[in-house]
Each structure stands twice: as structure tokens, then as C-alpha cells.
Design a protein that fits this description.
- The protein has helices at residues 16-19, 24-40, 44-56, 60-88, 90-109, 114-142, 146-177, 182-201, 216-239, 244-264, 274-277, 280-310, 315-321, 323-344, 346-364, 373-400, 408-444, 449-481.
- The protein has 499 residues and is mainly alpha-helical.
- The relative contact order is 0.15.
- The model is unreliable at 1-21 and 490-499 (pLDDT under 50).
């Protein structure tokens, strides 16, 4: 990827007084809480789906829409949400996103039928697309001192990486001991706390001064393109790659995204300015997030199936089983950004994380019908978590490092977008490949209970192998693209928000 040739933004050095504002760590707590609210929803609802299906009476064919509706709205509107935060104020976008997400969660929790539940999930995605980039953007503009930025991104990366595992545990506890509806109602508590904290702590004067016009042609092209992309991969998961809707959507996505790229080079106020992407480290970081999304979300899905259907774990026990992975992510995410990134830069760290994740996945291909948790499953989870932590937090930091203040929202949205697209692509590809592997196993072996169980094992192992391949590709790509050395502190980077 070519290096950025745009002239650096002209901004005064970071004032020492601003860097010493004590409330910035409370702001980090609020931002992290908001991120938890969004990330939990990626997995917590999966645990609740069987109970919701029994309660509301919808079919297996319709079940996917509870997940897909959220992914479609969230993935297709992230760039728009990021640019809205830049133009109309990150604080406003953050609070409105939280409030809307809470209302949509309440509607979903109280849903009397399938249609209302799906509509509420789509609305969650809409407000989540406004909230997620605003949260990361606020983090970027609040912490610009290198040491403090490293700590802040370590915490944020740990939350972003570990939230899925926490969602599985929380979803299991709520579903087993209360009701599936509490998997949505819990967002009211989390979002309510974040709204109060955000209203009290966040400054009011970080909106764009000149308020340029929104790039409507670019917005329509990229929103439609991302919608077609996410829907195409989701449709492939359920209906196959040869279905006309699948390849029609994917072709439309390629065309629309190409049109969007062209629009961004000719309009006066592009939705995603090329200067945001034309940086070698930022491009490498986005590739890293894409790979992490593709590998991580798929593994959550298949390991959950393995634990519950093969090892017969309860929902709560399944969630508890993921905790070592969560701890691994939190430990390496914080240490990578605080200790390693300022000294060595992302070049040795992110590829190392990719390699660890790939090795852990290859270890998981050996899991059997009677594998022991402590000796067979837990070591792989710990190493996988450690690898993911080394990828996510440094990539989030590198993807937003040195970006202009007026572009911080859309740069943050780009990070969320590639992770969301990676998750959609990964789940669709892994589901198709694993299903084919399971079917092939059944064709070659005599039918029986153990044969079906071993066919499932083969399907899971295939998913692990392909996920390992994703991370191997990510290792090579990030090793080649990241520059050597620690990131250079730019005094013209996004200024600190004055509180």
C-alpha cells in the first residue's frame, strides 16, 4: 500500500494542561462500557436464540434473521455513522447512539413476535453503527500522549476482543437463570450507565467548525455496497454460493464499492477521504482487523457448537469455558500497547499474534469426542486469546494513530467496518466449508450415532484449519506491510479534547 503523501494537518502541539485532565480516565471507562454494550450483542443473542425460538415460535429458516438483521444494518451504516460523528459532534453521536441502542434493546426484549424482534435487532444495528465509531473516535481524540494512548488502547482493545467471550458467559447465565429476553434488557443497564457518564464527562465543543456537506452519492454507494456484501455472505451461509441471490449480491457489492472508491477521488467532501487509507501502517492495521474478524467470530460459533453438542456443556459452563481465552486477550492486549508497541512498533507484534492464533487453531483440530478441558481445550483457548490480543489492540491503535481530528470518526468507522465485514465473510466461508466436510465424511462412512458425532468433529476441524489459514495470510500481509520501528509521535495529530 502506498505511503501517505497528503500534507499533514496543521494543528498546535498538545497542551500540557489538556494532557493532565483527570477526567480522561473516567471517559475511558465510559467509552469502554459503551463498547461492551455493542460487542456483547455479537454473541449474547446467539445463546438466547434457541429459547427465543421456542417462545416466539419461528422456524429454523427464519432464525438466522435475528443475527443477520443486526449485521446488515450495523455493517452497511458504519462509515456513515463515523462521518456523522465527525460533522455533527462525537459526543452527540455517542449519546444518541447509546440512547437509541437502549430503546431498540428494550423493544427487542419485549417483542411479542418474530417480526418485532427482527425489526428491533435491525434498529440496534442502526444505532450501533452510530455509537461504535463515535466511541473509538472519542478515544482517539482524548488520548494523544503516547504513554497514555497506549494504556487507553490496551484497555479498549481488551474490551473489544474479550467482549464476545463475556457475551457467551452472560448470555448463558441470563438465559439459564432468568429469561432469554434479559439478553436484550441487560443493554438498558449498560447503556444507561454509559449515557449518564457520557453526559457528565464529555466535552461539548468537538464538532466540525466548517460543517461541510455530507457526501450523499458516496454514502448511498458504500451503504448499498456494504449491505449487498454482508447480505451476500449471510445468504451464502444459508442458501449456498450457487444461489442467484448470493452471487448477484456479491457482484453488486463489488460494483457499488468500486463506484464508491471512484466517487471519493472526485467529490469535494468525500465520506472516506483517501488520505485516511493511503498510509502503509493504517492499511496493514485494517488488514489485521479484517483477518481477526474473519477468524475470531467463526471460532466463537464452532467452539460453542463443539462444547454444547459434543461435550454436552450447559450454556453457563460453555461461557465459563471461554474465560481463559478472555483473560489471554486482556493480558496481551494491554501489555502489547503499553510495553511492546512504544518500543518495537506493530511490525513484530501483530504477525506474532497472527502466528499464535494460527498455532492454537491447529491444536484445536485434534479435539475429540472425549477431550478433557484442562489438557486439550484450555491450552488452545489461552494461546488463541493471547494471539488475538496481540492483533486487535495494536491494530486499533495503528489504524487511528496520527489521523486528523476531523477524520477520526470515519477512520474509526473503517476499523469497525473491516472487522464486521471480516466476521460476515469468515462465518459464511467457514460454515460452508465445515458443512461440506461433514457431508463428505458421512458419505464415506457407515451411518450411526458415532459416525454423526465424528462428522461433526470433522466439520469443526475443517473450520479450525481454514481459520488458521486466515491468520497465516494475515501474518504474511502484516509482516510485509507494517513499517519497522515504533510509531512516530506527530504533533499535528488529532488534538486532545478539552473538558
Amino acid at each position: 500500500m502506498p505511503q501517505n503523501t497528503a500534507a499533514p494537518a496543521v494543528a498546535p502541539p498538545i497542551p500540557a494542561a489538556a494532557a493532565a485532565v483527570p477526567r480522561r480516565w473516567w471517559i475511558l471507562a465510559v467509552i469502554a462500557l459503551a463498547q461492551v454494550t455493542v460487542v456483547l450483542d455479537a454473541t449474547i443473542v446467539n445463546i438466547a436464540l434457541p429459547s427465543a425460538q421456542r417462545d416466539l415460535g419461528f422456524s429454523d429458516g427464519n432464525r438466522q434473521w435475528v443475527v443477520t438483521a443486526y449485521a446488515l444494518a450495523f455493517g452497511s451504516l458504519l462509515l456513515l455513522g463515523g462521518r456523522i460523528a465527525d460533522l455533527f459532534g462525537r459526543r452527540n453521536a455517542f449519546l444518541i447512539g447509546l440512547f437509541g441502542f437502549a430503546l431498540a434493546s428494550a423493544a427487542g426484549g419485549a417483542a411479542p413476535n418474530f417480526e418485532v424482534l427482527v425489526a428491533a435487532r435491525a434498529l440496534q444495528g442502526v444505532f450501533g453503527a452510530l455509537l461504535a465509531p463515535a466511541a473509538l473516535s472519542l478515544l482517539t481524540t482524548t488520548f494523544t500522549d503516547p504513554a497514555e494512548r497506549a494504556k487507553a488502547f490496551g484497555v479498549f482493545g481488551a474490551v473489544a476482543g474479550a467482549g464476545g467471550g463475556v457475551g457467551l458467559l452472560l448470555g448463558g447465565v441470563l438465559t439459564q437463570h432468568l429469561d432469554w429476553r434479559w439478553c436484550l434488557y441487560v443493554n438498558l443497564i449498560l447503556a444507561g450507565l454509559a449515557i449518564v457518564g457520557g453526559a457528565l464527562l464529555l466535552g461539548r465543543h468537538e464538532r466540525a467548525a466548517d460543517r461541510p456537506r455530507l457526501d450523499l452519492p458516496g454514502t448511498l454507494a458504500v451503504s448499498a455496497g456494504l449491505f449487498a456484501l454482508v447480505y451476500g455472505f449471510s445468504h451464502a451461509e444459508s442458501d449456498g454460493w450457487r444461489d442467484p441471490i448470493t452471487y448477484g449480491c456479491l457482484i453488486a457489492a463489488v460494483v457499488l464499492l468500486a463506484v464508491f472508491a471512484r466517487i471519493q477521488t472526485v467529490v469535494a467532501n468525500p465520506l472516506l477521504p483517501p488520505r485516511v487509507l493511503l498510509d502503509r501502517d493504517r492499511g496493514a492495521a485494517l488488514i489485521g482487523m479484517l483477518v481477526a474478524g474473519a477468524g475470531m467470530f467463526g471460532i466463537f460459533l464452532f467452539l460453542t457448537y463443539y462444547m454444547q453438542q459434543t461435550l454436552h456443556y450447559s450454556p453457563v459452563k460453555t461461557g465459563l469455558a471461554f474465560l481463559p481465552m478472555v483473560f489471554g486477550i486482556m493480558l496481551t492486549a494491554t501489555s502489547a500497547t503499553v510495553v511492546l508497541l512504544p518500543r518495537f512498533g506493530p511490525k513484530p507484534i501483530v504477525p506474532t499474534g497472527m502466528g499464535l492464533a494460527a498455532l492454537a487453531l491447529l491444536h484445536m483440530t485434534r479435539l475429540d469426542l472425549d477431550s478433557a478441558y484442562a489438557t486439550d481445550l484450555m491450552p488452545g483457548l489461552i494461546v488463541f486469546g493471547a494471539g488475538v490480543g496481540l492483533v486487535i489492540a495494536p491494530c486499533m491503535s495503528a489504524a487511528t494513530f496520527g489521523v486528523r481530528a476531523q477524520d477520526s470518526g470515519v477512520a474509526s468507522a473503517a476499523v469497525n467496518t473491516v472487522q464486521q465485514v471480516g466476521g460476515s465473510v469468515g462465518i459464511a466461508l467457514l460454515s460452508t466449508l465445515s458443512a461440506s466436510a461433514g457431508s463428505d465424511y458421512l458419505k464415506d462412512h457407515r451411518a450411526g450415532p458415532e459416525t454423526f458425532a465424528r462428522a461433526a468433529l470433522e466439520s469443526y476441524a475443517t473450520a479450525y484449519r481454514w481459520s488458521a489459514a486466515f491468520f497465516a495470510v494475515g501474518l504474511v500481509a502484516t509482516a510485509l506491510l507494517f513499517r519497522r520501528g515504533a510509531p512516530v509521535v506527530d504533533p499535528n495529530a488529532a488534538p486532545t479534547v478539552h473538558m
